[in-house]
Specification:
Low-confidence stretches: 1-38
Domain Solute-binding protein family: 260-586
Number of strands: 26
CATH class of the largest domain: Alpha Beta
Structural class: alpha+beta
Number of helices: 18
CATH topology of the largest domain: D-Maltodextrin-Binding Protein, domain 2
Keywords: Signal, Transport
Radius of gyration: 25 Å
Largest sheet: 6 strands, mixed
Mean pLDDT: 89
Number of domains: 3
Distance between the termini: 22 Å
Family: Belongs to the bacterial solute-binding protein 5 family.
Protein name: ABC transporter substrate-binding protein
InterPro entries: SBP_5, SBP_5_dom
Shape: globular
Helix content: 25-40%
Length: 613
């Protein structure tokens, strides 16, 4: 084990292993994550062993290569490592629901506002009863809790300073290691549709306001992830990282566009009282907005009687939505069961009062910035969801374990929303087809918002970025709805009728630790592991330069102005956890010294890192 990092491993150099990571070289693809460790010395010390969880190469090539990079460097410092792979949904279930991992490599959806860190890291979500995107790291730290709570209560410059303090505290503790933000690049046919650059294709705005050419009626979009063809439940924690189809099927009170929040289903939101730690808003809903299908069948819209049967979206639905997100059992279970998605949105709402069919007063337990983010949750039809809760609560022993009971795991097909598009058809692992909801409020003459101009959107599952690009170039599809893998971007030709869409991204690749498993509760261990990751090297080689390295899990205006957390082009060095080495080559001896600085570790004669258990 005392080898130079360039020394071959089973005949293959470290650089070759990294390059072949997408093929799964030297990776274990089956077996339990908790493996039996056999290296124990006479003094009772065991070799430091861990398992890295990730998705297969056909799910995300870059994830596998990051995992391989980390595996090789961990092994170089004497740690016993295996890499376990799961499908995308199984991966999220293992991490978010079962919490059965040591270390994982994945992508975090993040958000336009740093309040997403509240749900990601607050210790209130570190207990065994919390599942979903709420603190999957099981991280707990009083100082971080205080800062997470403080940034929720204030606005403006004062909040930005608290967020800076929060980011510095997170950087010191490294509950997860942010690696990079990938460039979001897609390819589309500009001879079929125009206006691609006006919205982000990871949100509803990317599909609204398009200009169909030559009477194009159907937009054919390709996705590499089949999950949207199998499940459109807005509450699911494992079936999506982003909410593109949810944005199209459901309306929210406000919508985010280019980092700004604008009224959507709400015609007006007026903050009428703002105090220290709370705010009250008067919300006026647009009138004559309706849910799609009274009986869950899109063909009902062709029946004249449908006009009289459909349900209007009212203040009652808004109040129900936030109560339901706070407890999906609606108080019928002994233990509340918050929704595994939109948890922090609901937690920001203190109470909702109905002042009329289209008028509400919403009081938050936060400042206005976090309060406004809470108003971006999808509004659900009470008449559909309440009945399902009651139907399932069929006894005194009714339980609704968060993220696991039937209401939040069902596929919710067909869905009933009020958004600009409604469900038309689907076939598992093949496609999801949506059709325009012609009665949507954005199609009114007096509403100045992007509207659904395309009659039908068909999301077709395609196996990968390379084949998706080829299908668009050949005219077999209109757009790659999934952002392209780095290896496919350079192959986009500059030719008439084809456009390359570049969108800002907030989603980031990261390495996550299970802080409730020894020794990952120790921040010194986490930092030592973080310093085995050469982020700039990964950006240059794995992402072919189509990514930006990160020292902190936020982007844009929220990155502090000083260099303590900002990555500078001059240095190309992580300002928080600099890589122990250069240009991807690990300084093994220096890296080993880092682990020796952590109390309780030593090396045996074979170069294995041991810890007294």
């Amino acid at each position: 084990m005392n080898r130079n990092p360039s020394t071959p491993v089973d005949g293959v150099s470290r650089r070759s292993v990294l390059a072949a990571g997408a093929a799964g070289l030297a990776l274990s693809t089956s077996g339990c994550i908790d493996r039996v460790r056999s290296v124990v010395d006479d003094g009772g010390a065991k070799q430091f062993s861990l398992s890295i969880l990730t998705v297969p190469a056909d799910g995300d090539r870059e994830n596998v290569q990051i995992a391989t990079h980390l595996q090789e460097n961990l092994e170089a410092v004497g740690i016993d490592v295996s890499v376990e792979m799961r499908s995308r949904s199984e991966f999220l279930e293992t991490v978010l629901i079962e919490h059965d991992f040591d270390v994982y490599v994945g992508r975090h959806p993040a958000d336009y506002d740093p309040d997403f860190l509240y749900e990601a890291l607050h210790s209130a979500y570190a207990n065994a009863n919390e599942d979903g995107w709420q603190n999957p790291f099981r991280f707990s730290d009083p100082r971080v809790d205080d800062l997470l709570e403080n940034q929720r209560r204030i606005d403006g410059k004062e909040r930005k300073q608290v967020v800076t303090d929060l980011l510095e505290a997170i950087a010191r503790r490294q509950p997860f290691v942010p690696i990079c933000v990938p460039d979001e690049i897609r390819v589309a046919r500009s001879d079929r549709f125009d206006g691609w650059e006006d919205g982000h294709l990871a949100t509803r705005s990317g599909y609204l306001g398009l200009d169909p050419q030559e009477d194009a009626e159907q937009l054919h979009a390709l996705v590499t992830d089949s999950r949207m063809s199998r499940n459109v439940n807005p509450l699911s924690a494992t079936l999506r990282e982003r909410g593109t189809t949810i944005d199209l099927l459901y309306d929210s009170l406000l919508t985010e566009r280019e980092g700004e929040l604008i009224p959507w289903l709400a015609e007006d939101v007026e903050w009428i009282e703002v105090e220290d730690g709370s705010a009250t808003a008067s919300v006026t809903l647009r009138e004559d907005c309706f849910f799609h299908d009274p009986n869950g069948d899109s063909e009902d819209a062709d029946d004249p009687a449908w006009e009289d049967e459909r349900e209007e979206v009212t203040a009652t639905d808004v109040k129900f939505t936030y109560e339901f997100l706070a407890d999906t059992s609606l108080g019928l279970a002994d233990v509340p069961s918050p929704a595994p998605r939109y948890r922090s949105h609901a937690s920001a709402i203190d109470r909702v009062e109905i002042d009329g069919p289209h008028q509400l007063t919403i009081t938050t337990s936060t400042g206005t910035e976090v309060g406004e983010r809470a108003l971006t949750a999808p509004i659900l039809p009470e008449h559909r969801w309440r009945d399902q809760v009651i139907d399932r609560a069929d006894g005194d022993d009714f339980e609704a374990p968060q993220a696991e009971w039937g209401l939040v795991t069902m596929n919710n097909i067909p869905p009933t929303g009020s958004g600009p598009y409604r469900y038309a058809d689907h076939e598992n692992r093949e496609h999801l087809t949506l059709e325009r909801f012609d009665d949507h409020f954005t199609r009114r003459a007096d509403v100045d918002l992007p509207e659904p101009t395309v009659e039908e959107i068909r999301f077709t599952v395609d196996p990968g970025s390379k084949s998706s690009v080829e299908r668009v170039l050949s005219g077999g599809a209109d757009v790659t709805a999934t952002m392209l893998g780095a290896s496919s971007i350079a192959n986009i030709p500059d030719e008439p009728g084809v456009t390359r869409i570049e969108s800002p991204s907030r989603m980031f690749y990261h390495v996550g630790f299970n802080a409730q498993r020894s020794p990952f509760g120790n921040p010194n261990v986490r930092r030592a592991i973080a310093r085995l990751i050469d982020k700039q090297y990964l950006v240059d080689t794995v992402f072919d330069g189509y990514a930006s390295p990160l020292a902190t899990p936020v982007t844009g205006e929220w990155v502090p102005d000083d260099h303590s957390l900002a990555w500078t082009d001059e240095d190309d060095v992580d300002p928080v956890v600099p890589f122990v080495g250069s240009e991807g080559e690990l300084d093994v001896e220096a890296a080993r010294d880092r682990f020796l600085e952590v109390t309780g570790y030593r090396y045996d004669d074979a170069g294995r890192l041991l810890k007294q258990y």
